[in-house]
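hey can u check if this looks right to u? its 109 residues, i copy pasted from the old doc so theres a chance i mangled smth
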Amino acid sequence: MPKYKIAGATSTPEKATSSTSLVSSLNPSTHGASVTFTATVTSTASIPPGMVTFKDGTITLGTGTLSSGKATFSTSALSVGTHSITAVYGATTNFSSSTSAVLSQVVNL
């Protein structure tokens, strides 16, 4: 059966899915202590490139560039309390975006 091209139609390749996980270097931590968050982004296709945004709820804390599937962000500016930290991998040409599960970072006095 012959294939016909529809005028104006374009074909876009599917993006490979990604998965993001997040860990803290120190949890619980004390106020003023430096905490490093490490995000790991994986895909069955290959190691995704790009950036990861680290968030506390809806507030952006900072970003990290992926290297060998890992990105880090360090801060000593978290206030006392419990923070809902996530790592968000932004979509690229070949990979879909993904967000880590919430990490509850506890900061004590």
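The two ends are 72 Å apart (CA to CA).
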